[in-house]
Amino acid sequence: MAPQVFDIDADELGIFLDEVNEHLQALESGILALEETTDPDTVNRVFRAAHTIKALAGTVGHHKMQELTHTMETIFDAMREEKLVSTPEISDQLLATLDYLQLFRDEIANQEMSDTDISEQLAGLRAILSGDSSPPTQAAPSNGNAHPVAIALDDALKARAKAMQADGYSLFVAVATTAPGSFAPAARLTQAAIAVMDVGEVLYQQPSMDDLANTKHDHKIELLVATKEGASAIEKMLADVMDLASYNVAPFVLETTTPKPEKPALPKKTKAKPKTGGGHGVDLSAEKTVRISVERLDSLMNLVGELVTDRNRLLQIESSLLAIYGKADVVNDLTEMNGHLGRVVDQLQEEVMRARMLPIGSTFAKMPRLVRDVSRAAGKQVNLIIEGEDTKLDRSLIEFIGDPLIHLLRNAVDHGMETPEERERLGKNPTGTVMLTASHEEGHIVITVKDDGPGIDPEKVKNAAVKRGLISEDEAAQMDDEEAVDLIFRPNLSTAAKVTDISGRGVGMDVVRSNIERLSGSVVVESKLGEGTTFRITLPLTLAIVQTMLVSMHNITYAIPLSTIIESLYLSDVTISNVKGNPVIHWRDSVLPLIDLRDFFTHPRMNGNHRGDNSRPAIVTVAWGKQRVGLVVDKIIGKQDIVVKSLNPIMGELPGISGGTILGDGSIALIIDIPGLIGAAMQARKQGVTV
């Protein structure tokens, strides 16, 4: 176990990090928004976010994080008072500071303190304020002979104060003031409150953090502090706060009156409690939600998966008993029980799935910063439009979709967008548009990345592929535009004129396709010269429990994901032709290539002519991206929900197989990987092998 570096308990770390991440994201989106607007609500939002992170950093003792957020808070306060307006250069500094904060967040998570130097970053932030803020002034010290000060407390706080004294703590009243007309007085008073927390526990504060966040103060803050370090330690902390006009620390005595309770505004220094935006504790009586760990959700899904398997097993037993005993009473009872159990399991499965579903907005929220940074580095003007961020999908997919989206958006800006001068010359708006959208369509989630740039030139792509030796000149000559554009997903292919920090090394798009296919999804590209390019990613909603069509070949059962199936038809109802030696059928006014799974999955020990009893060969038409193929099988068994099980790594990668499942009779069914199957079959045909 890592040594305790920061002042936070292990069981509170998750809550702390969740809150920090939430406010870091609010800072990032707000900083980017301030480049386009001076909306007071946006300014207040980033101010509160910086303020809360500062308070959180103070509670755990990360002083570098606290100092950076304090300076950011001062900048936002200047914006609130209309003394400062955001510019791209200011945003650069603030976003660079955000990177430091994310680093420091990770330090707290890992209980590791680095020697990161923030002096240069602080200097950059303070330079932003140099034209608006006056030089730091030294606060007038306490007189050293302060008389005891009385504060009226409610009964609960009185009891708390007496208990602290009994435990050996000394109680002091600290009062700090700022001069009328001083810069960012609320921020200075807030910093004073935070600073005092380093030497003790604040039992009482007036004005509260909420009041300070809303600039409700009389240039003075009053704090009741319990400490074992004495008044001088409190004075030392206040002396380090910039721009205080004065401060005073005096012993505390109880008043006899008990006015209306005033809740303390700050948590204990040793605790990181959940807070609202203003820093107060949450009213637990009003809570309607609870946090649950990812591991527990995964465990619940595994248990639901076992129930699904057992339900399928019971249905198999019911079918066997029905064949033996007919509609006997005990069989009817089992049928009734199975019906009820099936409904309960379906409902439980649906509820657990809902618990695992998260809005994709958490991933989309990271993209505006990426697009901004890439466009500035490339000297382009790009407006990112995001739609459908409330669309939900399984958390296991959200974890992996981020990298492909990053590649697509970087390409959309670097490859898929002209410079402002080029766009004006073409009669376009100097500022290009990239759209990132998500939606649900027929049991899938569809994510699109669309730009209004120059589009993809098929001839340019073919020339690059020939030059790299990926295809021959003859193959290039026979390709249509759609096939040529699809070459961008080949490894080591790049059409960039030069290598930059952003692109041009021939990696990225092949990673996009391979990662999406690993999630049982597909990605297709559509492009029009002069008008732009659209990438369309289609994903299943979940990878844990999948609806499938069970089929058999050689008396072995396979599962085809239902989301890939268009329709099925019997082989006897169609006429098979040959094109270039490969079987096809005429289907829906087009030519549909066939893949005979009976040959593709033939085992050497099996007789390839054996099709099983009562078989009626069929064709299952499936889709992968724009590609449609017919899979020839011995028999269609029927639909069934299955629990996906990973194959043992010792088996290696099996072409056309993505995993397995346990059926109701205890046997194993292999799950067909449609993208991998089509890819392997087409590769085999190129080598002259018929499948």
* Structural class designation: alpha+beta
Distance between the termini: 56 Å
Architecture of the largest domain, according to CATH? Answer: 2-Layer Sandwich
* Top CATH class of the largest domain: Alpha Beta
Strand order of the largest sheet: 15-19-20-18-17-16
Largest sheet: 6 strands, mixed
Shape: flat
Helix percentage: 40-55%
Number of helices: 21
Enter the CATH topology name of the largest domain. Answer: Heat Shock Protein 90
Q: Can you tell me the residue ranges where pLDDT is under 50 for at least 5 consecutive residues?
A: 132-146, 256-287, 603-612
**In the CATH hierarchy, what is the superfamily of the largest domain?**
Histidine kinase-like ATPase, C-terminal domain
- Average pLDDT figure: 80
Instruction: Give the percentage of residues in beta strands.
Output: 15-25%
Radius of gyration: 33 Å
Number of strands: 23
**Total domain units:** 5
